[in-house]
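Researcher: I'm preparing a figure for a lab meeting and need a structural model of a single chain. I don't have an experimental structure, so a prediction will have to do for now. The sequence is pasted below. Please return the structure as tokens so I can convert it later.
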Amino acid sequence: MAPLLAVALPAPAWLLYRDSRPHAAIGLFKYAIGYLGALFIALFVDHYLLLSL
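Model: Understood. Here is the structure written out token by token.
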């Protein structure tokens, strides 16, 4: 799951590089928070829910 989410990271990072206005930074921040949230959910599912298989 992490590689799939990481594939989309260069787009918001490139937008921040090209445009230093606050909305570009906020967009990258939102993506990073969503990425970390999805990663922690995947770790939780892997550890607690798939453990019983």
